[in-house]
Each structure stands twice: as C-alpha cells, then as structure tokens.
Amino acid sequence: MLSSLVVGLAIGSAYSLLAVAVVLVYSGTKVLSLAVGEIGAFGLYAALWWHDHGLLGVRPPVFVSALVAMVLGGLLGLVVERLVMRPLLGRPALDGLVATLAVALFLALLELKLYGLDPFPAPSPVGDGSVQVAGATLTVTELTLLALAAVVALGLWLFLTRTSFGLATRATTSDPVVARLLGVPVNRVYVFAWGVSGLLAGAAAALLANVNGSLTPFSLTSALLSALAGAVIGGLDSLGGAVVGSLLVGIVNGVVGSRVDPTTSAGIVFVAVLLTLLVRPRGLFGSTRVAA
Amino acid sequence: MTLLAVHDLCSGYGSLQVLFGVSLRVDAGEVVALMGSNGAGKTTTLRTITGLLRPMSGSVVLDDQEITGTPPEKLVARGVVMVPEGRGMLRDLTVAENLAVGGYSVADKQEVAASLDRVWTTFPILHERRDQKAGTLSGGQQQMLALGRALMASPRLMLVDEASLGLSPVMTERAFSLVAELNRSLGVAVLIVEQNVLALDLAHRAYVLEKGQVVAFAEGAAVSTMQDQLRTAYLGAAR
Amino acid sequence: MSRRELPGRLGGLALLLLALVAPSFMNVPQTAVVTTATCVALVALGLDVLVGSTGQLSLAHAALFGVGCFTALGLGTHGAPWAVAFAGAVAATAAASVVIGLPSLRIRGLQVAIASLAFQQFAQQVPAKWDAVKFVGRTFDPPRWLSGVTAQYYLGVALVVAVLAVLAGLRRTRAGRSLLCVRDVEQRAVAFGVAPGTAKLFAYGVSGAITGLGGALFALQQTSVSDIQPFILRESLLLVAIVVVGGARSPVGILLAAFATKALPGLLAPHVGDGVALWIPVGLALVLVLSVVGQPEGIGGVLRDVGARLVPREPPDPRPAGTDPVVAAARARSLRLVPRPLTRRLPVPALLTARGVSVRYGGITALTELDLEVRRSEIVGLIGANGAGKSTFFNAVSGLAPTTGSIRFRDAELLTAAPASRSARGIARTFQDMGLVRAESVRENVLLAQGWMASYPAVTGMLGLGASVHTERELRRRADQALELFGLDHLAGERLGDLPYGTMRSVEIAAAVASGPDLLLLDEASAGLTPEEAHALGDRFRALRDELGLTLVVIEHHVPLIAATCDYCYCLESGALIAEGTPTEVTAQPRVVESFLGRGTLEPARTLSESAHVGTPT
C-alpha cells in the first residue's frame, strides 16, 4: 500500500511539473495550453534519437539528452508563443485552446510520421538504481521526480513573491491591460511563461517516459490530461493549487490504478473534475476569476 | 511648451470607426479636459494616445517625437501614465504591491523609494492599508491608489479616464481636487476625460467631443463659459 | 433563395451528384474507405452542432462515436434488426451526450471543454474492461441488401443528405436561432425568451443523435470492433480539427475536411506509398494551426468569399431610410396583434410596480430599496449619473440580476418567474451596448427576438412540418413590418455586425418592437446621436406609444429629450431614488442638479494659473 502511495506521489510529481507548465501559461493569457505534453515529447524524441543514433559522431549520455529535451522544449515553447499565441492575443480564450490543440495534434502526428507508432525506448536520465524510502522501493527516476517537483514549486514561489519580474508576472495575471498601462513588459512575461513551461515539459517528459517504460506519440498528452485534471481541481490560476491537485491525482492513479484497475481510477478522477467544475469551479485554491 | 499633440486622429475597433479626425494639445504643467457624453469617443481617444489601440490614421506626438502606436508599457518610461476607467485595480495584489508595479519601469531604485514616500505622505490612508489587498478597498480609496500608482513613475503627463465613474458626487469632487492638487504641487500635466461637467473647474483648456469629433474648444477664462453652456445644454430645455 | 445563396446551392448539388456516381469509378476497398470517412463526417457534423452553432467545445466526440458504435454492436450482435440497432445507437448516444452536456448548465466555455476532456479520458478506459467479453466471436450481421460495400456506401450518402436536411431545418427555426443566441450572447439570452440551459441540452441531444448515426454505420461496416483506436483522444482532437478547418456551420467545408483527413490517405496510399499518405494528417494539423490563427472561418469561409466574389452586388446604404415616425407606426399597427392569452392583455392601470427593489452583487449594492411605478401608455424616464443603477434596474426587471423585493408586471410577480418568460409576458428591452447577435443577419436577429411566438416543437421545425412553416412565415412578415417601421427593411439580409453602430441600435429597437411587447425598456437609445437626431427619437417614442399602444421606460442622459417626451421621471443616484415627478419638477430640484453637475465648490484652476501660467496660449 505504501509503495503504491509513494509511486503515486512520484507520478503526481511528474503531473505537477506539467500542471505548473499549464498554469504558468494560463495565469497571464487565460489560454489553456493542451500543447504542453507534446512540446515536451517532441524535444525528448529528438534528444533520444540523438542519443541512439548520434549526430556528427557525437552520442550524448542519457542525462545530457534529458537536458537537451528541456532546452528543445523551452525553444519550442518560445516558437509556439511567438507564432501561434501572440497573434491570438485578444481573441476569445477558446480560440487559444483550439490553437494549442492544433499544435499538440501537429507535433504528435509529426512524431508519428518521423518515429513511428512503436514505443520508443526511454532510458532513465538518472540511472537505473533504486532506493528504499519508508519501506517502499522507489527508482531513482521516481525519486528525482519528487525532488524536482519540490524544487520547482519552491523556486516558483520564491520567484513570484520575491523578485520584481515575479511581481510583474503576478500583475499580468491580475490584469494584463492595467499592467501594460503601468509599464509592465507583458509580452516579455508571456515569453518567459511559455519558455519555462516548455523547459518543465521537457523535464517531465524525460522522466515520465522512463517511468512509463517508453515514449509514444500522444502518451505525454494523456499524462497532461491527468495533470490538467489536477490543475482544475487545485485551481487553474494557482500554482500551489496545481501542485496539490496533481499530487492528489497522481496518488489516486497510483493507488487505485494498481490495486483496483486503471478504469476505476480514471472514473474517480473524472467524477472529481466534474464535481469541482459544478460545485466550486475555481478549484481548491484558485481565484474567482477562473469561473468567469 | 507643448508636451502632447494629437493630429487628426482616426481610430476605432476593427471596422467600427469611432474617431473622425480628433486634434488636441496638452502643454507642460496644464490640465486639459476632454468632455463628452457616452459613446462620443473619449475612452477611444485615450486608448489610442496610450497605444492600446492603433489608429487608422493621424498621429500622436510627444515632445516632438512621434509615438503613434507605441505600446503603453514603453510610454511609461517616457513619462506618460494612464489611470484607466474604473481605476484598474490589481485586485489580488496588496496596496504596496500595486504601488511597486507602478514603479516597475523606473530604473533608479532610489527614485522609486522617494516616490513611494511621497505617495505615503500624500495618502496616509494608503499607508495604513499597505498590506491590504487592493480589491478590498472602497471606491474612494481605490481612486487614491490609482492616482498614487500613476505617480510612482514620476510622470510628466497623466491621462485620467472618467475618474468620476461609479463615485458619489462627494467622492467625485474629492478625486477632482486630488488631481488639481497633484497638478499644482508636482507640475504634472493632466489630460482628463469626463462626462461630469465639474471637471471643467480644474481645466486650463477644454475640448468637447461629440460622435468622434471635436465640436468645441475653450481656453483660459472661456472654459467657465463653456461649463455654463454645457450645464444648460445638459439640463436645460430642448433646443 | 437569394442570389447570394446560389453558389452554395450549386456547389452542394455538384457534390451530391459526384457522390452518387462515385462508386462507378472506385473499387471495393476504396468505396469502403470512403464509407468509413462518411461515418467520421457524420460525427463531425454532429460536433458542429455544438461547436459551430452553440459555441460549446466538445473534446469527447470520439468517445461518443464509440458509444454509438458499441450500442449498435451490442444490439446487433444480440439479434436486433439493423434499424433497431441504429435507433438504439442514436438514442444512447444522444442520452450520453446530454449527460456530458449537463455541466454546461452551470459552467461555460473553457470549463465545458475540460469536462469533455475528462469524459473522453475516462471513456476510453471503459472498453478495456468489458469489450472482449461481450463481443468476441459475435458479429453484427446486416440484412443481405445492406451487406454489400456499395449498398453501405449509399446508405452513408443517404444519411448525410438526411442530416444536412435536418440541420438546414434547424437553422431556419426558433431552435436554431436559440442556439446562436447561446453561442454569442448567452448572458442575455433570456431577454429573447431563450432559456440557455434548455437550448444547450437540446444541442447536445441533437449532436449526440447525429454522432450515434455515424457510430451505427461504422458498426454496420465493421461488423465487429476489435480495438478502440477510432474512439481515443487523438480522434477527438482530429474531429475538432475537421470542424474548424472545414468551417463552423459550413457542412460542405466539413464534409471536404473529413474526406481529406479520413479518405484521402487511404485512397492515395496505393499510389504514393504509406509514407506520403502519413503526411496528410500532419498537413491537416498544420492547416488547422494556420486556420485558427489566420482564417478562423476555415474552408467554409473561403468558399463563402469565393461565392460572394462570383455574385457581385452593390452594398445597400447602411443608414435607415427616413420615415415619418407617426405614419410608419400607423402602418405597422398590425404588430399589436400578438398570440398572447387574454389574461395577459387586459388593460391595467399600473403596468409595472417595483417595491423595495434591491440588487446586491457580493459586497456591492447596486440598487437600494427602489420604489417605482409605470402606468399604461406612459413614457417614463430614468435618469442619473453613470453608475447610478439605471441599467441595473432594467436587469432586475429582465431577471438578469440578483434582486430582492418585488417587481410586479400586470399584477403578477416577476421576480419569482423564469427570466426567459419576460418576452412572452410582454416585456422587451434593449441593452446599453447592443445585445444582438452580430454574426447573423438583421432579419435573423428580429426573428430571434420573436422567439416566444414560435411555439411549435423543435422537432417539427427541424423536419419542416406543417405548423412550423406557417408560423415561420408569419414571423417573417412581422419582422419585415417592424424593420419597415424603422426604415431598415432594405438592410434585412445584411449581416448585423457589418452595419454602423447607430444602425445596429435601431435594429435592436425594431427587434424589441417586433416581439409585440406591452412594455418597452430602452437603454440609452440616444447615445451617440446629435441633438437633432435625439429630438427625432422623441417623436418616435411618442409614435410607438400612440400608434402601437406601447408603454415605454427610457434610460437617458439627454435631459432635453426627457423633458420633451416623458410624462414622468425618476432620478437615481448611487443606487437610490433621489427624486421623482414630471421632468420639469425633477430637473428643478437642487439635489438632482448637484448629482449631475456637482456642487461647484472647487477653486477654479484657471484663477491660480492666470498668475503663474506655464505654457503659451494656443
């Protein structure tokens, strides 16, 4: 029981990385990005391909591949922001959602074309060891996920509350037009949000693919949906809420998924999301603006 | 010395044209009122000046440099700040944080600190509530915060959009007094856009906007004549 | 049928002919591929009812496709005849769709999309549990005449044609207009007698039914289903792509997009190899990205532009034709005849009585203990500074604001009645920022306002049966008459959003009058008008009262207009009533003057600066 709980926490940590990526983008732009999963996956595919096949005689170790995946994810995030999201500013939020859906579809189908449907082997960037934690066995990958999620959550909190660019980001979340009128470089805030979300997506992909065993097109989007469920339950414009919600969903998937079956855990998550949307649309920690 | 000049501005939203050739001028240190009823184009004029809207034609010139279409975040560094309609509170941020955002684009941190002290002195109520979330303040307090926040960037020109909206007459009077006081003591030029004829009491110069065009203009002593005319037109018998 | 519709109709006819003769130059596998694509096309058409017409984004339609398919299989493999299997699939999918749609009663937009995503994610796990058990070894055997590939192809074509006919019927009727209302002006739909919740669930039901047809056809074609690939998330995303790229509310565009996505790769693969064929979905996704960013109206929009260019026309003068208000109103007197029960038409002295009306939004009180009375055939003015609560009072009457107290209309309490019943009871209103649907034509908007008079059942309308045809014709006649009253009849077919703002606001008043009210609430009808135009508006108010028997309440800033037209006047300030009486009495009261113009106790800036003037004059 404990081990499935801990594994659930680890998966939830991966979800929380993805959820934070989504909330970062949602906070300022009110656009729900469905593309986060494939942005991470696309970078990872390229990085792992490089690891397998080498380029110009260079074959990087797996750890470097993970870093490459993060960088590629960040770059891809910036490209998407500039080419797709920027022109859509001012259009209704649903248009943005469909645009990110289109990006996700495009990337996933491209992955399908380039790398095929067969599962792509995804070795762990942090080695194959395992650790005993409180009587449960955790792989190093899972441990890394837990640690990374904690670091990211703390880091973002410090960033938002202690730095001036963090203040600018919070101002943009509160009201982008007023923020501009006060001199906040709102476009730079969006670029930052998309770039960091891409980085997080790459990191999540590198670790999660190993936990799942392999990488396939759309698999990260499936994980993203669980992360999204967590973000909705926690509150779409609350980073803390995103983390808490995703951990909860991870635990449900880990515990119920392994001890009962995945269908039941999917059912529980579905009901939880539905209840949240009906009873308290802003989630556990979100602001009332989410419900608008 | 002319601070801001607007030439023949035509602007609108998509295919809907709202302004049909608006020209006006604000000199350094003076208060200019732009009067008009609902739908006349007052807010559109301010949004175009401040760069939230791109005009269809015409130009906006600051200090002899064209700033047409320059985004608002860049204009703050050049001394132009807008106090938006409805006061534009960053509701989830505290009073102190709202003010900090106001000073975001100022490079010299000592200057920001000095501006902050000035705001605390001018608005002691804000200092009392500095850790309170801006969304919880009353209408009048929010108006003070909006003005104080605008001052954080040490502006040379403040654009004030319908400060009287949603305020009782007493609060409106107070808001106008504040604006007049800031103009007198700090020398900040003000372009105030209003429906409420009382705003003309502050103004050195005034324009009247109707259906996107300037239909009347008055300067100096003539402003109070215009105020009387508008009062009559507003409340008087049919033409 | 106007000239503008001609290219569209001809194009559709050409496609139909192509579809009918296609099997003669396709071999069997190719025909099967096209039939499968037809199944997806049906689902896409179903999805469009939600996305295009009602503005609800569903990311669960592949799962619904699965519901239809598995229901048909379930019934068909257990001996039911194919028609029963089809009917069962339609019913089950419609029901499932309505269940998915239930959250939309309380939440909107983005969150509806999220709820549908959650459902899709859950639903695709379900078959894993019992698919293999239930259907292994059993097949859905169609009757002999339907077992041929070509026969199934023609069944598909027939289904598509039937669905298109039903959708066209939907668009022409009250139900279709209600959906548009929900899509574009949901917050105010009740002012047009549309109950958004009912309209949305109806849309989900219709959408599900059409999707179920697609699922049933697929089940027939496949005879058994071994994997769930056609029903997973990827397919839901592709369906949205097909609808968006095809163009919302553009059936031809959607059919083309569905064909390109699902049939083209299979048809081309033998000729160009699998590798190239796999690029087509990628290409579609890229086109989708470009569509959303650049051309949101998709293929349908492109086709419409091309069609418009083929049939050139001179755009009409967007200003209302000048009409004498009194003469025009006399001509339009038949608008007084409305199908309202007698009890709701009896003359009463006090038409509207408000007592102790308060409106509170969270911590903000917008109206405090308002007492107000409107008598029959009066023109009552409501004045006050911005934010005084005038529009809030209208919202209270419309049922759009959280209100306490009592508002009685014809001695029946309004606040306990459903908001959507206002127009049926005889209250019509306009909004300060023009509350009509800009994407639709002027006439459609007027018809929308008359929704309460179209009392035929939605299904009758969709099938174009008896009562609905007659009623629609009558409503169109009334609409044209109302437009003529305001000199707008030459603009009846124009898209509302293309007209100048002033004309749009006139259309809004015409629409309100067309709905045959007893009480007309006008919110700042004179905004943006010159003094002359405002004066003419006063003549129109009086004509509406004298010739059409309307009672008016007008919110105005233009005080001379109030003085010239109103019998009685109420002045509000910060949510409370500060004066009432005839306009002369009210405007003479110092408190009213002060409310508008302030007390004038400020030190005039000019006297100080005259001695220390900074700039140079002019």
Folded structure, characterized:
The complex is a heterotrimer of chains A (292), B (239) and C (618). Chain A is mainly alpha-helical and 292 residues long. Chain A has one domain: ABC transporter involved in vitamin B12 uptake, BtuC, CATH 1.10.3470. Chain A has helices at 2-29, 36-53, 62-85, 93-115, 140-162, 164-174, 176-181, 186-212, 219-234, 239-259, 262-279, and strands spanning 120-121, 130-133, 136-139, 214-215. In chain A, strands 1-4 form a two-stranded antiparallel ribbon. A two-stranded antiparallel ribbon of chain A has the order 2-3. Chain A is globular, with a radius of gyration of 18 Å. In chain A, 61% of the residues are buried. The model of chain A has no long low-confidence stretch (mean pLDDT 88). In chain B, helix 3 (95-102) runs parallel beside helix 6 and helix 6 runs parallel beside helix 7 (169-186). The longest helix of chain B is centred in the C-terminal third of the chain and has 18 residues, at 169-186. With 239 residues, chain B is of the alpha/beta class. In chain B, strand 7 (157-161), helix 7 (169-186) and strand 8 (189-194) form a beta-alpha-beta unit. Chain B has a single domain (2-235), classed as P-loop containing nucleotide triphosphate hydrolases (Rossmann fold, 3-Layer(aba) Sandwich). In chain B, the strands form two sheets. Chain B has a six-stranded mixed beta sheet with strand order 6-7-8-3-9-10, with helices on both faces. Chain B has a four-stranded antiparallel beta sheet with strand order 2-1-4-5, covered by helices on one side. With 618 residues, chain C is an alpha/beta fold. Chain C folds into three domains: 3-230, no CATH class; 345-425 and 518-599, P-loop containing nucleotide triphosphate hydrolases (Rossmann fold), CATH 3.40.50; 436-517, Rossmann fold (3-Layer(aba) Sandwich), CATH 3.40.50. Chain C has helices spanning 6-21, 28-54, 61-77, 82-101, 109-123, 126-135, 149-172, 174-185, 196-222, 233-246, 251-277, 279-293, 298-310, 325-331, 390-398, 422-425, 442-449, 458-462, 466-485, 501-514, 531-548, 559-565, 583-588, 590-597, 605-611; strands spanning 350-361, 364-375, 379-384, 403-409, 412-413, 427-429, 519-523, 551-555, 568-573, 576-581. In chain C, the strands form two sheets. In chain C, strands 6-7-8-3-9-10 form a six-stranded mixed beta sheet, with helices on both faces. Chain C starts with 5 loop residues before the first helix and ends in a 7-residue tail after the last helix. Residues 599-618 of chain C have low confidence and may be disordered. Classes of the chains: A mainly alpha (292), B alpha/beta (239), C alpha/beta (618).
